[in-house]
Amino acid sequence: MEKKLNITLAHEFYRCSKAYKNFNSLLIRLTKESDIESRLNCHDYYVDFISHFYEFYVGIIELNIEPKNNKFHEIYNSDSKKKKHEILDFTINCEVEKLFRNRKNRMINGYDDDLGLDIKFYEINIPADFGKHFRFIRNRRNHINSDRADSEGNISLSTFYKLYHKCLIIMYRETEWLWKVDIEKFDWKEIDSFTKEIL
Q1: Which of 70, 135, 168, 175 maximizes the CB count within 10 A of its CB?
Q2: Sign of the Cα pseudo-torsion (21, 27, 28, 34, in order)
Q3: How many CB atoms lie within 10 A of CB 50?
Q4: Mean pLDDT in consecutive groups of 10 residues from the start of the chain, 199 residues
Q5: Are 5 and 63 in contact (CB under 8 A)?
Q6: Residue 129, Cβ density class (10 Å: 0-12 exposed, 13-18 middle, ≥19 buried)
Q7: How far is 30 from 159, CA to CA, in rounded Å?
Q8: Neighbouring C-beta atoms of residue 164, cutoff 10 Å
Q9: Whole-number Å distance between alpha carbons of 137 and 166
Q10: How much is the pTM?
Q11: How far apart are CA 141 and CA 138, in angstroms?
Q12: How far is 92 from 136, CA to CA, in rounded Å?
């Protein structure tokens, strides 16, 4: 079971990386006067990145819940007052705080930042709603929801980008070294055999 889940997680990270690469490639060519199709594609690539990355991260969290002597596991799988998505929101926030803290500590201990960022970048307070808004944007992409066209008081994609993109970048970079696989050598099982079987 764990091998199948690892293949699925690697595939989700691949999909996330592809969407992020497409978003960045298009964004650097866009101007405010760019054509509508390019602007729509830019939007779609970014929400695809968020959606795949959210699914990947939730998979990592669920993979790493140890069943024995783990308070989080008890809360996560219990009938507590908190819903599963609220626990995930909180866990994602804790993870981002840890990643920022670890990167800051590396710099304090004399290591250069691989993104070339100043230590002040890592001295921010992660907004309490990051996990919740990460989930909202993912849900908006995956479900028919009028908020996609007009967020009316809920968080818009552009507001999410301005507030949280730096959080996603750190999360992405900290997982990339482990989950970016050589697609030619990786055993994708049915994900790869699909085309071979239908041609």
Answers
A1: 168
A2: positive
A3: 28
A4: 85 97 95 90 96 94 64 57 83 94 96 94 94 93 61 81 96 93 92 91
A5: yes
A6: middle
A7: 19
A8: 22
A9: 16
A10: 0.86
A11: 5
A12: 13
